[in-house]
User: Fold these one by one.
Assistant:
Number 1:
Amino acid sequence: MVSYSPLTAELKAIIADGLSPDSSIVDRGNLVEYSSDASTLSYLPELVVLAGNTDDIKSLIELANRYNFPVTPRGGGSGLAGGCLPSRGGVVLSTMGLDRIERIDTGNFIMKVGAGVISLKVREAAEAAGLFYPPDPAGMDQSTIGGNGATDAGGHPA
Ligand SMILES: Cc1cc2nc3c(=O)[nH]c(=O)nc-3n(C[C@H](O)[C@H](O)[C@H](O)COP(=O)(O)OP(=O)(O)OC[C@H]3O[C@@H](n4cnc5c(N)ncnc54)[C@H](O)[C@@H]3O)c2cc1C
């Protein structure tokens, strides 16, 4: 198993400096908010990055490769298997700030959205545009479209 060194104060500062004003970090105080999901598991992150754009995510991943620290994406935190928890330490990357529905192309049934859009909002936007969004996970009022994609959440089998 690959081992990682704890994030030093210097490395946390490098991570923070690499972010644009759209994004921010959570260090110490509110980390516990990001230490659990809908499972019974719990792992405290060393740092949380609240991403406000995808360029900042790219910068973070580049730093993670350079300095060898883990990054765990987190959407709505409604997962039942602890997937968004930093079991190996490092950074939790919250996508909840990527919450824009950018475009709906009704002719081609395409919606361009940020990874952090709550799935129910996707359904509502589709309905408002005269379309139907078929996936129906029961936690769609909490989960994000990115989390649904990552976990293949679609709803209960008929
Ligand atoms: C009341 C309730 C009902 C539920 N009903 C269903 C159901 O009907 N069907 C079903 O399948 N599941 C269901 N779930 C489980 C859960 O809602 C789904 O797994 C959902 O897809 C998780 O989305 P999330 O945004 O909360 O992801 P999180 O819990 O934050 O993360 C889940 C996983 O996805 C990864 N991830 C999240 N966002 C991204 C991203 N942008 N890019 C890459 N990886 C990402 C995380 O690292 C983690 O591994 C339910 C949960 C609850 C609490």
Number 2:
Amino acid sequence: MRDQKMYCYTCGTDELHRRLTANEKAWLKNRTVRKTVEEFFVCKAPGCRNLRTGFQKRPFDGPLRLPDDL
Ligand SMILES: [Zn+2]
């Protein structure tokens, strides 16, 4: 899957995003109690790792970042 440029709510700019790895999906499912997290992308800007879906730039009340150690 190719990276996609889309708006990052945390960066405030259009940034490259990638799909989540299996480990990251498992973490997010556990963290959000969602049944599916296939629609999520993570920002690739250095130090950001903010999560969004393909349609919603801000799917949660506040920013949700992937932990650095996943
Ligand atoms: Zn970002």
